[in-house]
Predict the structure.
Amino acid sequence: MSTPSSSTHAGIGASVLRNEDQRFLQGRGQYLADLEINGVKDVAFLRSPTANARMTSIDIDESCRDKVFLLSDLGQVKPVRAILRDDAFRQSDYPVLADEHVRFVGEPIAMCIGETRAEAEDIAQSIFIDFEESPPVVDMLSALRPDAPRVRPEWPDNLYYTHHLKGGDLQAARDSAHVTVDMHCRMNRQSVVSLEGRAVMAYWDHRLNELVVYSSTQFPHVIRTILADLLGLEERQLRVVAVDVGGGFGVKNNLQQEEVAIAALALRTGHPVRWIEDRREHLISSPQAREHDYEIRAYADERGRILGIESRVVVDAGAYSIWPWSAAMEGNMANGMVPGPYNVPAYEGIGLSTASNKPPLGPYRGVGRPGACFAIERTIDEIARAVGRDPYDVRMENLVQPTQMPFQTIVGRLYDSGDYPESLKRAAELIGKDAIRKEQEQPRGDGKYIGLGFATYVEQTAHGTQEWLTRKLTEVYGYEAATLKFMPDGGLVIASAVQNHGQGLETSLAQVAASELGVDPRKVVVRHGDTAVSPYGMGTFASRSMVMAGGAVGVVAKRMAEKVKRIAAHMLQCAQDDVQLRDNAAWCGERSVGLDRIARAALQHPEELPPGEDPGLEISGTYQPEISTGAFSYASHAVKVEVDAETGLVSLLDYVVVHDCGTIVNPMIVEGQIVGGVAQGIGTALLEEMPFDDYGQPLASTFMDYVLPGPTEVPDVRVEHLVNPSPYTQYGIKGMGEGGAIGAPAAIANAVNDALRPLGAVINETPMTPRRILSAILAAEDKEQP
């Protein structure tokens, strides 16, 4: 791990301590639940107790009728419609509150107002609703049957969208294959469980004549635009503010129905209203994640070199299409990422996005790629076993080679730079592959088995204009903006539309400015999360922040540096080309002038400026990468596990990640992000699952049932870096925020299966719980019986 830099260098590449840590470590962060607004009243949502039903009557006691609001009470609020620009996509409106029909347990039906949350909940409990129930659709594979119940009766089936990809000569692969490997993999549904739950507060500001909406969101400007449209407001009359956001991971990167409902309620009542999500609400009703089913058929030669792959991925997208990503997001992404980092000459894939009577599926750290990585990496290991070789060797020979970069995949993605084999080689060396193989040869009588697993993945980051157009989204998030301005004392303010929710962006963006302007990052403040302060931008998601916002800050800082140098050259009486910016000053040889004096001249003493130089030190600008199909980070994960065949428990003995995100702005922050992602990947692999019964009832509504990884489940993850800058982005930066979570489930699954190999047991479903592992062992024993 990197240690904080003790040198004077504090720009790109330095492990600078985070500017934001002081307030967080001292408990002085300000989250939405900490805000106090005069006259605010708390809201509790009455949520559906059933998965699929028509409401035939709603009985509200007259004593509290003025404190209960149904959809009909909110006025002309448009339903949310998240679609693709494709006529084949099945559209469906998602009402802000249920309108006659409920389609999943937890769907909001009514809002109840109280002086406290407890009072509001009591009012919600007093409401009686009669339901006319229908059979729910719960299993995504059963949903595909012709005789399955319909989530929407007007649809001919339960499919939102079917995504096809095809490239290369698959018939030639079939004809020449030495081995054919069939794989069935499943990644079960999860809750996102951000540290801070979702939250919304809204009120009308009469002084400014605008609706102010506080939301724990990842993209305030985008939320403002869609809220204005749904509520019928002019966008100038709407301000969205995100204060400290305690984690998002994607669940706060959707338009939430509660955001629209609370905003509409504030307009209706004329006083501030607030909703703070509790944990049960989050677990059962917030957008959920994963739930993929893969059928893979791989064709390979006698050495295990892949000749072609056929794939079918089915994704349970839930009851509604989430704005702006649509219900097809996960299926389309997973289908396109199945080839992964491998040189696959022929591919045919189909992605099926199905509807069900479950909460909608939304983005979660990795968006489709953890499942695709799980499927292809398990397939690689099984190909290796089919040809009698070590999975490491087969993996190494199939990886895209550095000499092939930039590499156009069979499905059209452009991998920009990297050395995938080197990352795998380094990971194998760090984990001690040869020593583990020797250890596995030693007989043990304790019923515990050692396993070694690898996974290599690519992560598409910082998707640009062309990528969003290719995905047929209605919204195009192809650029980012920044404003930089000096204060008269030489301090720098960066205004950015990206939202910091734990990634250290306030420090990393300051480091980019420091590299161009020579300003100490501790003298830089980053203002974000407020549409009234920052320039219009797209927010934080898809590992885009440092590529896009960092690029925007860099572009604007370069322009700012030119103006600072012009003023400094005038003051120092030297050529502008001789001026260097460092250590909070402009230098010409041994002479210098401080940035504070330059700023005072620009802002307070225009008489000191060069002739013709405009006053002021405030510049805005935008940035989009040279190639708009995205940058590609990658990593190899290696893990050593111990599986207890008596209990089914898995222990992670060692974990290594060799990662490449191009140019690293702050290694300490990057490593923290990777380790945090691995922790979430461990949850996916071994612990986290949101199951439902046959009636669509969620079976994990508390942390007694929904198990998260803790300190005892997360090992000391060792991280090493490769640095292969992207040729297409500012500074060569690639995004990396999702990577740790992508590779972990696949690496752990391969290690567990490697450990179980002497028993003949195979498990291809997450989470790999003790029950599932013991079932796999028993199934293998039954298979061996004559």
